[in-house]
From TrEMBL, chain A:
Ranges where the HTH gntR-type domain occurs: 5-73
Species of provenance: Actinotalea lenta
Alphabetically ordered keywords of this record: DNA-binding, Transcription, Transcription regulation
Any coiled-coil regions, as ranges: none
UniProt-recorded name of the protein: GntR family transcriptional regulator
Entry keyword annotation includes Transcription regulation: yes
UniProtKB/TrEMBL annotation, chain B:
Keywords: ATP-binding, Nucleotide-binding, Transport
Protein name per its UniProtKB record: ABC transporter ATP-binding protein
Single GO MF descriptor: ATP binding
Domain of life: Bacteria
Length: 134, 295
């Protein structure tokens, strides 16, 4: 947990990340509040707040007496949200730092392309791996 | 919201010294509240007043809605673990646990045995012969196994090493999750407990200077650093807790920045960083000490 953002947001984001990368597929059961509190060593009320946020957003649903599960369509909705936030969250600081170092936009674009090729290849490889059920 | 402890306009004087100076707050039911501050700030006095071990000079205290002084009905629902607990002569560890099992109505003997094994407490040793760490461990065992409706830990871990402290936090969280109850944790190891706390009280020179939800305190202060001239310009007119300068580089800790102000600072080429609860408390409590030296 970092010091900057509210812990409940970080708890919610970690679960969102697991939904996005497929570690928690739709219909999968999410750890209980007490399990999350113990794992992250945080106050259970904070863990509850993080989970409640995801339930309120319709990403998780509660089954009384059983637990919390990933809702249908959660992954695609999260992807849409994250794509929207991507420019603000990642591209803007990248461009600002590049400007500070005197890196022009063409040079920056070339750098991104050089980094992107191996990263995307690795991503594709991982996805086919997963699909093959290994 | 049910208040387990209600303190109103509380003052405790020792001669001319106000150890607790006009303090008001509530401790909410089923929350873990941190009572933080420097040594000698008045934390222990405050907890002794709450548990009826001291007479107030003025103001009122309600424990479960009643005055605590010589009030067995509310004190039996309270477990107060203090750093330097004294025991009768000849008392061994096992005697401490036996007495605790009589005193606390929700005592869990199985949990106590489990904790004794985890903390490696030598039950057949006299309390006087125990190391500081072993005596602290007994306190931790009693505090957790008592399952009291209100449990107050006053610096519970003198002499406990990092492994044992981690075990204490984990067991506290696990048992609190299973059996929610009201916990007050007084400590100067703020970084270690910050994420466990739901509410934070900070006392300094007898006065309550912070009374806030832990979540609200996160992000309430920000470190801004960069070229000294830029940083000084940015900090002008703001509430500055701390300033550090090295060469032409400066760093300030300021409170109350809005997200747009943070973004503006970042856009102006300044480095914007988080401030931990511990740094915040240090900033707030050192300021007063400095003023006193200056006056």
């Amino acid at each position: 947990m970092d010091d900057e953002r509210p812990i409940f947001l970080q708890v919610a984001e970690l679960i969102e990340n697991q939904i996005i990368d497929g570690a928690m597929p739709e219909g999968a059961q999410v750890p209980s509040i007490n399990e999350l509190a113990a794992f992250h060593r945080i106050n259970p009320a904070t863990a509850l707040k993080g989970i409640t946020r995801l339930v309120d957003a319709g990403l998780l649903f509660k089954q009384r007496g059983i637990g919390m599960f990933v809702a249908d369509g959660a992954r695609s909705r999260l992807l849409d949200q994250r794509r929207e936030a991507f420019s603000e969250q990642y591209v803007r600081p990248l461009v600002a730092e590049a400007a500070k170092l005197g890196i022009g936009s063409d040079e920056l674009a070339a750098m991104i392309r050089r980094q992107a090729v191996p990263a995307l290849a690795a991503q594709r490889w991982r996805t086919t791996d997963k699909e093959a059920g290994r | 919201m049910t208040a387990i402890v209600e303190v109103s306009d509380l003052t405790k004087r020792y001669g001319s010294l106000a150890a607790v100076d006009d303090v008001s707050f509530v401790v909410r039911e089923h929350a873990i509240t941190g009572l933080l501050g420097r040594n000698g700030a008045g934390k222990t006095t405050l907890m002794q007043l709450i548990t009826g071990q001291e007479f107030v000079t003025s103001g009122t205290i309600r424990l479960f809605g009643q005055p605590p002084l010589e009030n067995a009905a509310v004190l039996s629902r309270t477990c107060f673990i203090k750093e330097s607990q004294t025991y009768p002569d000849g008392f061994k560890g096992e005697h401490v646990l036996r007495v605790a099992s009589w005193v606390f109505p929700h005592w869990d003997g199985a949990l106590a045995r489990d904790l004794v094994a985890e903390f490696r407490v030598p039950l057949d040793r006299r309390m006087k012969k125990m190391s500081r760490g072993q005596a602290s461990a007994i306190g931790v065992v009693v505090g957790l196994a008592s399952r009291a409706e209100l449990t107050i830990f006053d610096e519970p871990y003198a002499g406990l090493d990092a492994v044992a402290r981690r075990a204490f936090y984990d067991r506290l969280l696990a048992d609190y999750a299973e059996h929610p109850r009201t916990i007050v944790l007084s400590t100067h190891l703020i970084d270690e407990v910050a994420d466990l706390l739901e509410h934070v009280l900070v006392i300094d020179e007898g006065r309550l200077i912070i009374d806030a939800a832990a979540e609200d305190l996160r992000g309430s202060a920000t470190t801004v650093s960069g070229r000294q001239a830029d940083v000084e310009q940015f900090a002008r007119g703001r509430d500055v807790l701390q300033t550090d300068v090295v060469g032409a580089f400066a760093s300030v800790t300021v409170t109350g920045l809005t997200p747009s102000e943070r973004a503006a600072a970042a856009a102006a080429g300044l480095e914007v960083g988080p401030v931990s609860l511990q740094q915040l408390v240090i900033g707030r409590t050192r300021g007063t000490a400095r003023q006193e030296v200056a006056s």
